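Whiteboard transcription, Tuesday session. T.W. wrote the structure tokens on the left side:
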């Protein structure tokens, strides 16, 4: 890893830790999906045919598939945004297959930018999880002390 990747790892770890700490079930599953995507590349990186990194492309497809599955079962907006950014990142591998010599570093830079946008979406996920927790707690308090509209004598 180079210096830029180490610098990008710090906010990634903070945001994913925040999702694990503050999040509910779907937020934690989303964080687990991203942790898997962080840990998988050393194993999949050697899978290269020509100039195309098939292993990383398959990992990108797996991340996209996992995020889409989470979108289908959850109501979190941040997961929808993260899936959209991952769709753009995954489609960049199609460009690499079509034009292997064209803009290799541009594709890598694009994927880094899209990763950071996914981490911004995860940051909004922390706020969404905290807000959902606060709303559910206030809702449970309201049910514990119902407001009666009847006049008692």
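and on the right, the sequence the group agreed on:
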């Amino acid at each position: 890893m180079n210096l830029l990747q180490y610098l990008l790892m710090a906010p990634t770890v903070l945001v994913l830790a925040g999702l694990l700490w503050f999040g509910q079930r779907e937020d934690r599953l989303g964080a687990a999906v991203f942790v898997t995507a962080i840990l998988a590349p050393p194993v999949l990186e050697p899978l290269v045919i020509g100039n195309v990194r098939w292993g990383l492309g398959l990992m990108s497809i797996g991340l996209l598939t996992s995020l889409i599955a989470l979108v289908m079962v959850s109501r979190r907006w941040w997961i929808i945004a993260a899936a959209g950014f991952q769709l753009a990142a995954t489609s960049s591998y199609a460009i690499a297959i079509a034009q292997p010599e064209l803009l290799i570093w541009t594709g890598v830079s694009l994927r880094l930018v899209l990763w950071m946008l996914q981490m911004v979406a995860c940051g909004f996920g922390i706020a969404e999880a905290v807000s959902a927790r606060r709303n559910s707690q206030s809702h449970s308090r309201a049910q514990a002390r119902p407001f009666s509209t009847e006049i008692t004598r």
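Someone added at the bottom: The radius of gyration is 20 Å.
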